[in-house]
Amino acid sequence: MKLSEIDNSRKTVFSLEVFPPKKTSPLESITDILGEMRPFEPDFISFTFGAGCSLADNSTCKISSLIKHQYGIEPLAHLSCVNLSRGEVLGVLKQLEEAGVENVLALRGDRDPSRTPKEDFHYACELIELIRENSKMGIAAACYPETHPEALSPEEDLRHLKEKVDAGATHLISQLFFDNHDFIDFLYRVRSAGIEVPVEAGIMPVVNKKQVERMVSLCGASLPKKFAKMMSRYGSDPEAMYDAGIAYASEQIIDLVSSGVQGIHLYTMNNPEVASRICRNVRSIIRCVNRVPGAQN
Which residues of 129-147 are buried (b: 16+ CB within 10 A; e: fewer)? Predict the structure, then answer.
């Protein structure tokens, strides 16, 4: 099922993200995680590209096929282009299509200072255009409620986002954020810029102090007073911080769904226990907004 069909069948889409097992772990180790996440009934599961955005040792095709054919869930395969040539991208697309995958998340990918990037792609919009012209894939793209770290201004970032949509992206998934006001304000600016495609809110549960520091360092997410207060009060108590982090993410989702957002994308960090508790907290909320009027429960 294409992303556009999923979006049209739901008021609020609910999806999950997982990433490949470590190189030292067998590929099959991901099956345990997928098996535990299947009962959450996600509309799709996104699967990140191989480490370093390299074609070598990339497990995207295998895992995406597994998600679809063994677990009966639509996969959204990440495709990062910074280290791929046009020919290599076309090769990956062919493999994905042969595996029955219908949707990709088109990304430039993070530059690795230790590697020389290919020169075929400089921006995600170039990858999106190539995918649109050479496949029938549904195309999603990333967006940044607090502005991409490399953008000179929020206005420039929005212009680049519109270029992605104009190139063929029909669905957007946001980077993580901790303040819902930032996302709602971002949505207003997105619509004012003439971008009308569905936007999913990216939510990452933070269950320990070290994780917070890492996430802020990597993506520059700001910490609202409420979150900082939680960290100050429970950060030194692992069990309390674990529960508080789950509660905070659950509250974020409920507030966003109540505000009418079009989708929630939960970054699971391959932690089924955390994902399970959050899904149990919000499942009835999401079912409620997606319920067809007059239908039986």
Answer: bbbbeebebbbbbbbbbbb
**Residue ranges per domain, the chain?**
3-290
Neighbouring CB atoms inside 10 A of 267's CB total 22
Q: What 3-state DSSP class applies to 104?
A: strand
First to last CA, the chain: 24
Alpha carbon distance 129, 163 (integer Å): 10
Q: Of the residues 17, 74, 129, 146, which is catalytic?
A: 17
> What is the three-class DSSP state of 143?
strand
Mean pLDDT of all residues in the chain?
Answer: 90
Q: Which of 38-52, 63-77, 96-110 has the lowest mean pLDDT?
A: 38-52
Joined together, the tokens standing for residue 202 give 């990216």
Report the alpha-carbon distance of residue 152 to residue 253 in Å, rounded.
30
Q: CB count, 10 Å around CB of 195?
A: 19
State the Cα torsion 273-243-41-76 to the nearest 10°.
-80
CATH number of 3-290: 3.20.20.220
**pLDDT, position 274:** 96
Residue ranges of E strands in 20-159: 44-47, 74-80, 103-107, 138-143
Q: And the tokens for 250?
A: 């659950």
- Annotated active-site residue 156? The verdict is no
3 state SS of 148: coil
